[in-house]
Amino acid sequence: MTTLLHWLKHSAHADRDQLMLFVPVCFGLGIAIYYALSAEPLFWPAPALAALGALLYVLLRRTRLRFACIAAMLAALGFANADYSTEQLHTPVLAEPIFFKTVKGTVHSILLDEKSHKVVLKNLTIDTLSAEDTPKQVRVSFRKWDEAIDIGDVLEVKATLFPLPKPIAPN
Q1: 41 Cα distance to chain centroid
Q2: pLDDT tens, residue by residue, 111-158
């Protein structure tokens, strides 16, 4: 055990000019920890841990623990970055079906097929839903198609909307 510690100390001292290469490793470790969680965590602990790591680095500057403080701080910053990125991409989804409500939105894309015609609407307003609970886009199917509808048109229809289906496999 003593020889292993001696080897680690000697290797760290010899490679001290290459320690910057561990910055993306520690940052990526924090991101990996975030995506390995089974539930969405609170946002504030990760920045708090990063600040604690920076504070401990300043307080323990003359000890061997300073590199561990930097590694913990970088992992916490990676975790916070993943959490922030996920929150920025958050979009409301329907929790339950909405039956026969007025849906108004801008036609974003049109998919014509033999059985039905599908239109993706964005910039939506939906009866009985607040702006915060309104999805960013919906896909509406039509049996009869009006050839005058084009991308960019504002469309107002009575529609039944269903939530996204559950995942086939867990996680």
Answers
A1: 12
A2: 887 777 888 999 888 888 888 888 888 888 887 777 778 888 898 888
Model-level pTM?
Answer: 0.58
CA distances from 30 to 59, 60, 77, 127 (A): 23, 22, 7, 42
Residues 63, 64, 66, 69, CA torsion sign: negative
What pLDDT is attached to residue 128? 83
Cα distance between residue 14 and residue 152, in whole Å: 63
Across the beta sheet with 154-161, what order do the strands follow? 137-142, 117-126, 98-112, 154-161
3-state secondary structure the chain: CHHHHHHHHHHHHHCHHHHHHHHHHHHHHHHHHHHHCCCCCCCCHHHHHHHHHHHHHHHCCCCCCHHHHHHHHHHHHHHHHHHHHHHHHCCCCCCCCEEEEEEEEEEEEEEECCCCEEEEEEEEEECCCCCCCCCCEEEEEECCCCCCCCCCCEEEEEEEECCCCCCCCCC
